[in-house]
Amino acid sequence: MRDLADALTEKNCDAYVVYDSSANADMRYLAGFLTSDPYIYIYPKEGEGTVIVSSMEELRARRETTCNVVTRSAAGLPDLIQEYQNIETATAHMIKNFAGTKLLVPQSMPVGFAQTLMTVADVTVDRGTVALMRAVKSADEIALIREVQKRNEEATRCAVDMIRNSETRVDGALIFEDEPVTSERVRDVIAAALRPWKCEERDTIISCGTDTAMPHCLGTGQLYANQPIVMDVFPRSLVNGYFADMTRTISKGAPREEIIQMYAAVHEAKELAAEMIRPGISGAEVHNAVVDFFAENGYVTAGSSGFIHSLGHGVGLEIHEGPSLSMSGGILEPGNVVTLEPGLYYPGVGGVRLEDMGVVTENGFDRFTNFEKQLIV
Amino acid sequence: MRDLADALTEKNCDAYVVYDSSANADMRYLAGFLTSDPYIYIYPKEGEGTVIVSSMEELRARRETTCNVVTRSAAGLPDLIQEYQNIETATAHMIKNFAGTKLLVPQSMPVGFAQTLMTVADVTVDRGTVALMRAVKSADEIALIREVQKRNEEATRCAVDMIRNSETRVDGALIFEDEPVTSERVRDVIAAALRPWKCEERDTIISCGTDTAMPHCLGTGQLYANQPIVMDVFPRSLVNGYFADMTRTISKGAPREEIIQMYAAVHEAKELAAEMIRPGISGAEVHNAVVDFFAENGYVTAGSSGFIHSLGHGVGLEIHEGPSLSMSGGILEPGNVVTLEPGLYYPGVGGVRLEDMGVVTENGFDRFTNFEKQLIV
C-alpha cells in the first residue's frame, strides 16, 4: 500500500476513494469484499482502509474484508438523503465527511459520480497507481495463478484427448463416442474438468477451420479433421479470483501446408520472446522483436491478416491487465505475470496461436506453462 | 433509438459515444458485439450507429453487429498515435474526427478517459437515457427472459429434489446417495442442469442456518435439516445475455417456529406487492406498502435486522437494473420486468426470502415464476 500512500502525498490528497462493486478488480484487490453492488473503499493518508457498506452487507463484509467496516447508516447517509433529496449527492457528502475534502479517485470512476463528487470536494484523478501495484505480484499471488494454470492444463488435456481419440467421418467431421465433437461439447468438457477445482471457464475459444482467422471468434458447431482448432482457455478461480491463460492450436490429422508453416513460425516466435523476457526490457522491445521475426519470415501484417494483436499481457484478477507486451509496452519488472501469445491469421486460410504464461524473475522468465506444443494429434 | 435521438437534440450534441467492452450492458444493448476489450460505439444525430474496432476484431464484428463497422486504422488511429504519442489522446481525437465536437457520453464513462475527451471536444454527461430504454423490454426481450426463468425453475427443481430426497444424519447433516449435501454440491447440480440450455449460474446463493441472515452470503459447506436454506438462483443465457432471478427458502423438516412465522409474513408480503403492480404506481409505493405490512406484523427494521433491502429490481442484460422497487423507486410502465423479493433477516435466527419475477402489463403484472412456495420439504 506504500504506492498509494506515496500517490496521496504527491497529489496532496487526504484519501483515495473507490466506489464500485468487486467486479472492479482494483476494488477486489484493495478491499477483498465480494459484491455485485457498489460499495465504498477509502484509503486515508493516515490510518487504515475502510469500507462503507449497506446494513444488509455488514455481517458479510466483517467476515470477508480485513478493512474497517462502517455501515452507510453509521456514516450518516440517511440524514444526508433527507437533506439533499438525492442519493448520489448524499453519497458524495458522506464520502467527504468521512474521507476529507481533497480526494484522489481512480480513472475508472464513472464520470457521472465523479462530477457529483467534484461539487462537494476537490477531486484529483489518479492514473493507474493501483494497476501498477497489481501488475507486480506477490509470492502468494504467483502461487495462486500457478495453481489455476495447473488446472487449466488438466482441463485442456481432457479436451485435446477427446479430439485425439475421436473418429473422422467421411466428410471430415469429428465423432467421439458416436456423438459429434462440437465447440460447445469441448467447452463442456473443459468446464466439467475445472469445476471440482472451483475454477470456471467463460468465453473459452474452441474455433475451427477458417473461423480460426478471427482471434476472438469463440467457435460454434462441428469440429473437423485436417483443420486448425484454436483452443484458448482462461479459467478463473471462483475462490480467489485469479486467472490463468493458455492457447494451443491443434489439428486432428495434418492440416494444409500453410498452417504447418505458420505453426512453426508462431512456435519459434514464442520461444524467441521467452528468451528475451527479463527485468529492464520493455514490452515494446519484445513485441517488436516478434513483429520483425514474422516479417523476416514473410508474414507481413496488413489489415486483418498476419500478426494482428499484441504479443501478450499481464494476468491476475483481470484476464487482461498490466504490463502490456505491445507497441506501447513499458519496462518489465520482477513479479510481472505475463502471457506470450504470438499468432498469425489469414482469412480464408485460418489462424494459429500459441500462448504460454509465466513470471518475470530477477534474471529472466519462469514459465508456468508445461503443456506440450504439438500441432497434429 | 428514438430516446437517444431525443437526448441528442435536447442536449444539442452531435453524437452519443460509448467506449467500453460488452461487459457494459449498455454497450451490448446498443452495439451487440461481444468483447472483453473496449471498443467504441457512436450514435450520430443523423445516420446510423457505428462501431470502431481493432483490425483483429473486424471480421467478427461484421458478423455480430448490425451497426456499421470501421477499424481503428481506417478511422486514422495509427497516424494520430504518431502525432500525439499517447493512445488515449489519439483515441479522443479519432472519436472527435468521426463523431463531431459536441459529444454526449454515458455517466458510466471512466472519468480518466472523459477528462481526456474533454480536452478535444465539448462533452455532456447523459444521465441514464440508455438505462431507461433498457428498462422497457420489447416482446422479444420478454420472451428471452421468460425462457431463462423456465430453465431456472428446472434447475432449482433439481436442487430442491436433492434436498427433499436426502437423508438426515443423527447430527442433522443432510446426506444424498452417501455423500454430504453441501452448498457447493447443490450449486453444481444447478450448474449442470443449466448448461445444456446454454445458461450459466454465477454466485448462486445456497446458504443454510444462521448464514441465511446475511442476504448475500453465498453459503458454504454442509447443509442441515430443520434449518432454513435460502436458494437464490439467477442464471444468464450465454447466447443472448439475459438474466432470470428467483429465490426460494426451504427446510428439510420443520425449522424453528420463528422461521415458519417469517415465511408466512414474507409470502404474504410478496403477494400483496404482486397485486399492487400496475402501470402508474411507483416502485416506492409498492416498497413502502411492504415495509408497512412487515411493521404491522411486528417485523421492525433495525440495523442489520428485519427487512433490510429493497423490495425488487429490474432484470435484463444486468441482474440489477431499472426500475427500482425501493424507497426511491419511480413510476412503473408496461414492459418493465421486475422482481418482487421481500425478505426478513435476524442474526442468530436466520433469514427467509421469496422472489418471483414478471412483467408490468397494460393493466397489472404478468408473473413469469411458476415455482411452488413450500417451506418444508
Automatic annotation (TrEMBL), chains A, B:
Gene Ontology molecular function, alphabetical: initiator methionyl aminopeptidase activity; metal ion binding
Domain of life: Archaea
Keywords: Aminopeptidase, Hydrolase, Metal-binding, Protease
Protein name, UniProt field: Methionine aminopeptidase 1, mitochondrial
Annotated Creatinase N-terminal domain residues: 4-84
Occurrences of domain Peptidase M24 (ranges): 144-362
Organism: Methanorbis furvi
EC number(s) from the headed UniProt entry: 3.4.11.18
The keyword Transport belongs to this UniProt entry's keyword annotation: no
Protein family per UniProt: Belongs to the peptidase M24B family.
InterPro entries, A to Z: Creatin/AminoP/Spt16_N, Creatinase/aminopeptidase-like, Creatinase_N, Pept_M24, Peptidase_M24B, Peptidase_M24B_aminopep-P_CS
Pfam families with a match to the protein in the record: Creatinase_N, Peptidase_M24
Name of the top EC class for this enzyme: hydrolase
